[in-house]
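Title: Comparing notes on inverse folding

I've been comparing how different people in this forum approach sequence design from structure. To keep things fair, I'm posting one structure and asking everyone to reply with a full sequence. Here's the target:
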């Protein structure tokens, strides 16, 4: 992991991280045709060995934490797009306690930039 990777804008950093971790990154509109996907989703990833399981990734590079409203929008997106198996929200500032609890109940994954960096470091250490 280079220092230049850490200074990239969050959406680009997240996409590069998923590729480094071995995921295939797809443009959202190549997989999904729903208008909500265009406005809410950053991109879609699949694991290399599982091309039929799509995870929608939402990146929020905000100066505030992600709240319950974004969790509900992600849930609506998941219900509107049957092609998606999961949703993952990545935030630069983290998540409110309520947002974390609701996401856990409805099965939406949450990650911070710091957690992604930790995943990268562990991957590098294993290689």
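Reply #1:
Here's my take.
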């Amino acid at each position: 992991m280079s220092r230049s990777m850490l200074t990239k804008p969050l959406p680009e950093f997240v996409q590069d991280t998923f590729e480094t971790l071995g995921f295939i990154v797809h443009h959202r509109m190549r997989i999904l045709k729903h208008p909500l996907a265009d406005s809410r989703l950053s991109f879609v990833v699949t694991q290399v060995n599982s091309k039929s399981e799509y995870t929608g990734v939402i990146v929020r590079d905000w100066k505030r934490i992600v709240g319950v409203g974004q969790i509900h929008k992600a849930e609506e997106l998941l219900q509107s797009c049957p092609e998606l198996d999961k949703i993952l929200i990545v935030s630069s500032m983290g998540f409110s306690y309520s947002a974390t609890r609701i996401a856990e109940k409805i099965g939406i994954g949450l990650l911070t930039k710091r957690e992604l960096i930790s995943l990268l470091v562990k991957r590098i250490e294993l290689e």
